[in-house]
Amino acid sequence: MAALIIGYGLIPTKYATEFNIQHFAELPVQVGGRIKPLDSVARNTLLILSARQKVVTRDGQTLPPILWFMDLTMRPELADSYPIFKIEFPDDLGLPNLAQAGERYYSFNDLKPHFEALLTARSNINPEPRQRSAYEQQVADLNQGLSLYHRIMHSLHPVGGSDRLDRLSDEYQSYLTLATGKGMAELRKQQAGQEYDSKLLDSFIFFADDYLKLSQLAQLDVIPPPPPVAPMADWKNVGLELLDVMKGQALSPYVTGYATLTMAYRANDAVRFNQDLASLRQRFIADFPNELGRVRFEQLFNELQVFSVSMQLYVLIFLIVCISWLRWPQELGKAAYWILIAAFALHTFGLLARMYIQGRPPVTNLYSSAVFVGWGAVLLGVFIEKFYRNGIGAAMAALVGFSTLIIAHHLAMSGDTLEMMRAVLDSNFWLATHVIIITFGYSAMFLAGALALIFALMGLFKREFDKETARSLSGMVYGITCFAALFSLVGTILGGIWADQSWGRFWGWDPKENGALMIVVMAAIFLHARWGGICQERGLMALALCGNIVTAWSWFGTNLLGVGLHSYGFTDSGFLWMIGFAASQLFCIGLVSLPWKFWRSSFGQAKQLKAS
Amino acid sequence: MRSIFKFFSSLKLTVCLLSFSMALIFFGTLDQVHYGIWHTQKLYFESFVAIWSYPQQWPAFDQLYWLRLPLPGGYLLGGLLFINLIAAHVTRFKFSLKKSGIFLVHLGLILLLVSELLTDLSSKDSQMSVDEGSRSNYSQSYRSNELVFIDRSQPDHDQVYSIPAQLLEPGKTVQLPDSPLRVRTVQYFANAEVGRASAPSNSPADQGVALKMNVIASPIAVSYADDAINTATAYVEVLSPQGSLGTWLVSNVIDDRFPPQMVRLGSQSWEIALRFQRYYYPFEIELIDFKHDKYPGTEIPFNYSSQVMAHHQDRTKNQAALIYMNHPLRYQGLTFYQASFANKDTTSIFQVVRNPGWLLPYISVLLMGLGMSVQFAMHFFKFLRKRT
User: Fold this and answer.
1) What is the complex's ipTM, to 2 decimals?
2) Is A506–B361 a contact, with Cβ atoms under 8 angstroms apart?
3) Does residue A137 share a domain with residue A214?
4) What is the Cα–Cα distance from A283 to A292, expressed in whole angstroms?
5) Could you list the residue range(s) of the whole structural domain that residue A476 is in?
C-alpha cells in the first residue's frame, strides 16, 4: 500500500495535449531576488488565491496550476470564468447576489459587478493588519487577490482584449518603427509648430502612455538583461522593456517571443507554439548556462509534492503500528519500521531539495521550521524504534511528522516559501547553527510530549501495558528530554551570541527569546524534578505534556503578539489553533493525573495495590 | 542554622524557583504588548517584585479588571537561584568525574547570571549618526536627556556644561560648576506636545523661542513603544548672583533647526538647550561610504554596510573598518553596529554599545554546552552498554 502512495504521488504529470506544457512550465522569471520557473509562480499565485494547487472549473474539469496560468495570461477571457477566488464566508461580505449556496470558490466574472463595493469596503478597514477583525481580513485578502490576479494576467503582454492579443506582433512592429525615431521626430515637429502627422503622433503617444502603465502594472519580471548577464542584475517586466526602446535599447527577443507564444496559443496552433517555445528556451540556456538545471529541478520538485506524500505515509505508519498492537505484531512492526525509513528518506530529500534550490541551510522561515521540526522528530523516532522495537517510537514519530507537515501546509498559503533572507538574517553560519539547533530542540520537546501522551493512553486503556514497558517508555521520555534540554540550551545561547554580533546585546527579553528561555527552563524543571524524586512517572509525563504547550507557545504563540501595538493576536487564525492545542494538552494532563484505580493496565493496577 | 542551609540548597527550591521563572517570563511577555520591550524589562526582569494586571483587550475585562498577579521579579529570582546553586554545591555536591558535566553546566550558568547582572548595571547603549563624507565624535542616547549650557567663547573648543535630566526636579536648583549660573526647574515633562500657541498664553517662559515664536508645551503620556521618541521638555529659570536672568522653554525637539537660545550675563553668553544625552569620544568616526544592496528586482535588503575610518586624537590608534550586519566594529572598548540609515542611503546610523562584560556569555555557552554534552554522553554510553 505504501508503494501505491509513493508511486501515485511521485509520478510526474503527463499532459494530454500537443502543446509542450513541460517546457513552458520551465520558462524562467525573476521573483523575490532569484530565478524561478513559471511553474512556481503559477502554484504560489494559486495558493494565495485559492489555498490549493489546482483549479476545478464550473464544468468539472480539473486544471493543474500551469495550465491555469497559461489561460490566465494568454486566454484571459476564458480564465475569468474559472472559480479560483476562495471566499470562506461570502455572506459576511454583504454583497448582494454574490453568495451561492455551497460554493466556496468564485470567479473573476462573479466578482466583477461588486468591484466598487469591495473597494469602498477596503478603504474602511483598520490600517493595522494585526488588529483587523475576520471580516476586515477577508475584505483585505479579496482586494489583494483581485489586484494580484490582474497584475499576473498582464505580465506577458499589454492589457487588451482578443483584437489586441491576436495581433501583438504587428503592434510591436509598428511600435518599433515609431519608438526608434519616427515618433520623436513627429513630436518635435509638433512642438516646433511645424506640419506633423497627427495619426502617427497619436499612435506614438498612445503606446508610450500604455506601456508606462504596463510597466507599473505587470507583476512578473520575465525579461532578463541582454548577455553577458550579471547574476545580480535586475530583470524587467514587459512594460519597462518596451519603454526602454525609446531610450535606444534594442527590444529583447523575450518580449516578441512571449507575444508569438500568446498568439499561437490563442490560435490553437501547437506546432508554432512549440517552435517559439523551443527558441525561447534555447536563448535562456545560452544566456544563463548554469541556471537551467536548478530551474528544471525546482519545477520537478514542485510537481513531486514530496511533503504531501510523506504526510500520507506517516498516517499509514501510525495506523499500521496501532493495528500491530492488536494483531501480527512482528510483521506489521517491521513493515511500519521500513515505511518509516522510506517516509524519512522522502522527507530528507524534500529538505535537501529546498536547500539546493535556495542555496541556504534548511530552516529560513516559519514554513521550513515546521518541516524541519517534523524531520527532527522522525529522526529521533527512528533511533528509538531501532533500540526498543515496540512500535511506540515509530508511531509517535509519525504523529509528530504528520502534524508538523499539516502545519507547514497551512503556512504555505501565503505564497512563496523559498523567499530570500533579509539582511540581518542573511548569515549562513548562524542559520546553520543557532536556527537548526533550536528547531531540533523543538522536535525533541514535541516527541517527548507525544511519548508522554501514549504513556497516558496505554496506561489507562491497554491491559498489557506492564511495568517493563512503562519503565522503557519513561526512559525514552527522559532520554529525549535530555536531548531537548541540551539542544534548546545551546541553541538559545547561540541565538544570544548572534544577537550580540548583530544588535549589540546578548539578551533583550524579546518575546521570541523569552519563549526559547521558557523551553529551556521547562526542560530543566523536568530534569531536576526527576533527579530529586519530586515527581514519579505520572508527574513526569504531565511535565512533558506541559512541555508541549510551552514549545507551541514559543514557536507560534510569540508570533501572534503585536508587541507595542496592543494586539494579542486574538483575530489571527492561528490563535484558535493554539488555544485548541493547549486545551487538548491540558486534557491529556488531566488524563495522566487520574487516580491509579482508573488505570486498566497491569502497570496501573500494580500501582493501585501498592498505594492501598 | 542547618535547616536554613538545607532549605537554600534543596532541589525542591530549585524546581520552585524555576517554575516561578516560567510564570514571570510568560506574564512579562504578555505585558510587552502594552509596555514595549524596554520598559517591561525594567518592570519584570530588573526588579524584585512585578505585578501583572488583567489586560483591557482580554474578554471579560469588565468582570476581571481587578485581577492582579504579584510575581517575584528577575533580581529576586536570579538572586535566589544563585544562592540556591552555590548552597547546593557547597553542601551536597562532591566533585567526582561522574558529575563533572553537571559542574560545568552549573559553572556556566553562574557565569551567565553574573554577566547579565553586570550588563544590566554597566552597559550603555547609544546611537551615532554620520553622513557620508563627514565625521562625528559623539553618540547620543535615545532615552536619556541632558540640559546643556554651551560656552562658545574660545576659538578652538566649546565648553559644555551638562546637567542630566534626572536632576531637573520642579522646584530644585542646581549649581553649574565653575560658573556663576544656577538653574531652577519650574516644570519638567518627560513627554510633551510642543507647538505654536494660537492665542497669547500665560507661559512661564519669558525668553528665547517661547517668547519670540510663541511656542508652548503641554505634557502628554510617556510612550513605551520600542521606537518611540519621548519629547522631554522643561521650563527652567536661570539665576545669577545678580538675580534671575529669565525663564526659558527647552525641549529635545527644539534642536538645531531653531535659532540657538542664549543666556547672557555681562560679557559672557551661553547657549542653553535640552537634548539627548551625548557621550563624547577622543576620536572621530568618518563615514566614507554607505551601501544598501537589495536582491535584484526586489526591495528586500540583503546587505547594509558602512566603510568607516576612525580618526583618534592619538594618531597611532587610527583604524579603518567595514561595518555590516552581523559584523560590528570593536574599537576602544566600544562596539559599533550597523543599526539603521537615513536620507536616501547617505546617512548611516550606528548603535554604539559599551559593555565591558561582553565576552562572558561566550565563555558561559562553551562551559554549558561542554558540560551538558559530557553529562549526556556519559548517560548515553551507559545506556548503550546496558542494552548490549
Assistant:
1) 0.84
2) yes
3) no
4) 11
5) 421-611
